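Reply to thread "Modeling small-molecule complexes from scratch"

Following up on the discussion above, here's a worked example others can learn from. I took a protein sequence and the SMILES for nicotinamide-adenine-dinucleotide and predicted the complex. Inputs first:
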Amino acid sequence: MTFSIDQYRVDGKVAVVTGAGGRGNSIGRAYALGLAKAGAAVVVADLNAEGAQAVAGEIVAAGGKAIAVGVDITSQDAVRAMAQQAKDAFGGVDILVNNAALMVELGYQPAIEVPIEDWNKLVAVNVTGALNCCQALVPQMRERGGGKIVNQLSGGAFPAQSLYGVSKLALLGLTTTLARQLGRDKINVNAIAPGNVMSDAGKLLTPDESPFVKLLEATVAMRVRGEPDELVGALLLLCSSAGDWITGQTLHVDGGWVIRP
Ligand SMILES: NC(=O)c1ccc[n+]([C@@H]2O[C@H](COP(=O)([O-])OP(=O)(O)OC[C@H]3O[C@@H](n4cnc5c(N)ncnc54)[C@H](O)[C@@H]3O)[C@@H](O)[C@H]2O)c1
């Protein structure tokens, strides 16, 4: 097969992006708009149903296809209902982007002091939530002859330096496990680990004067801060046929923060 630039397009595909309806300028919104521009019909899923509606509205206003679904990904029943809504609207799902997460909620609290209820909530969203979505949507991908799953990690997990990082490492474990188990179903499972992204949530967590940003400035090879749109190219590689032979991998998009051998 000869390479064509059109392999980066996802025309006719159906994508679910979780956490795509959040705080204003979010990474999930950039992912949803990017997938729609590349040709996919998008299910914009978020706990914040109103925010999801706004992003789906943006896609439709630009001539794309989208529906909004208000969903709490920690609830298996709610996620199953979302999967059914996706199927009813577009016939089935090919692409799942597990982007929803709790990030700002724990801040930089020392692990030893974090109330265990808060840890349980973090794991319920960042890990179990992603697994719930995979369990609900992989059957649809199998029916359609394959699919793509992309899990959203973080540079802050390499190595983990907070309980948030620990939850993202668990999601990395889910990525490699599912990559092995779903490969023969032609389902690629990969991850993106962004650096310090200037989404509204990122700005809230890491203001210019934060010690974390100072630390990054001393270590990052290229540029510490990026915009949500700067992650979309990596997402399209992993969601399109351009990435058909890539599975089980983590793509670091972070200006050279985490550089691994
Ligand atoms: N901003 C950064 O610097 C940065 C860096 C690395 C990784 N990330 C990751 O990127 C992703 C998006 O981050 P963001 O900066 O856009 O933050 P964000 O807070 O805007 O996005 C998270 C979204 O998840 C949704 N959500 C939370 N709990 C949910 C639940 N139970 N069910 C459904 N949706 C739920 C929120 O409503 C929100 O819209 C997250 O996975 C985050 O961990 C962000």
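What I'd highlight from this example: The two ends are 31 Å apart (CA to CA). The mean pLDDT is 96. Questions welcome below.
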